[in-house]
């Protein structure tokens, strides 16, 4: 089975093998939403093992908020070598590991040309975990369109109390760009978190700012290489 075709199985009957593959790729919660028909580029072929080993394995598990100097250097060196076509291929893969790696490098190198792809991925929320990377990239781009993607996400997903996805990171990204915009979402936010006892906005906010600071460090080291 070609894993690039997994996305077509999200809302159809699937074999046990396909269900397991979807779960491994990050499609752990399959949900209907108004954005599922948004078109995004899809790779025609699976990425090679060598490709994954170089551009994904060293980076996808990184929590940028507490990245050490070794990690920062590794990102900087890779960002110096990577290009927008590689990042687009990472984003076109149906797997949270490749997508979050692609989002990291899109943010580091400020590939704002990929803004629509990343924004649509955030809205579609096909795979788990990658959303934090999308939000970092959109906050880095800091355009009106990037802000609109964040607002659109929150307008819908704050009403989905059954889906605890990337509402916290998206909220922090929007707040980073426009505090007035988040203020207008206060009622929706309060309704969303009313039954979520582990919600800690200060923790989420601090972590997001630390991630943005790390991205700045990576860019600075990259410029010195």
Which series of helices and strands comes N to C?
A: HHHHHHHHHHHH
CATH class: Mainly Alpha
Distance between the termini: 42 Å
Strand content: under 5%
- Number of DSSP strand runs: 0
The helix content is: 55-70%
CATH architecture: Alpha Horseshoe
Structure class? mainly alpha
Main beta-sheet annotation = none
Average of per-residue pLDDT values: 90
Per the principal axes of the C-alpha atoms, what is the gross shape? globular
CATH structural fold name: Leucine-rich Repeat Variant
**Count the helices. How many?**
12
Poorly predicted segments:
6-11, 23-27
Radius of gyration: 17 Å
Number of domains: 1
How would you sum up this structure, described in words?
With 225 residues, the protein is an all-alpha fold. It has one domain (16-224): Leucine-rich Repeat Variant (Alpha Horseshoe), CATH 1.25.10. Helix content is 60%, strand content 0%. The protein has helices spanning 16-25, 49-55, 69-81, 84-91, 96-108, 115-124, 131-141, 144-157, 167-177, 179-183, 186-193, 201-224. Residues 6-11 and 23-27 have low confidence and may be disordered.
């Amino acid at each position: 089975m070609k894993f690039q075709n997994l996305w077509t199985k999200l809302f159809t009957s699937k074999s046990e093998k396909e269900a397991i593959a979807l779960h491994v790729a990050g499609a752990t919660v399959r949900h209907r939403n108004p954005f599922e028909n948004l078109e995004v580029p899809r790779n025609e072929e699976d990425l090679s093992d060598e490709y994954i080993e170089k551009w994904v394995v060293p980076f996808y598990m990184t929590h940028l908020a507490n990245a050490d100097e070794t990690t920062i250097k590794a990102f900087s060196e890779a960002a110096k070598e990577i290009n927008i076509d590689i990042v687009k291929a990472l984003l076109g893969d149906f797997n949270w590991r490749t997508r979050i790696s692609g989002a990291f490098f899109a943010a580091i190198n400020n590939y704002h040309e990929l803004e629509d792809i990343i924004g649509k991925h955030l809205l579609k929320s096909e795979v788990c975990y990658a959303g934090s990377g999308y939000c970092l990239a959109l906050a880095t781009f800091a355009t009106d369109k990037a802000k609109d993607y964040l607002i659109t996400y929150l307008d819908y997903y704050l009403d989905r109390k059954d889906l605890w996805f990337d509402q916290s990171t998206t909220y922090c990204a929007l707040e980073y760009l426009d505090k007035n915009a988040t203020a207008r979402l206060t009622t929706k936010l309060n309704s969303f978190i009313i039954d979520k006892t582990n919600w800690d906005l200060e923790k989420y906010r601090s972590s997001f700012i630390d991630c943005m600071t790390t991205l700045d460090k990576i860019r600075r080291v990259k410029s010195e290489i």
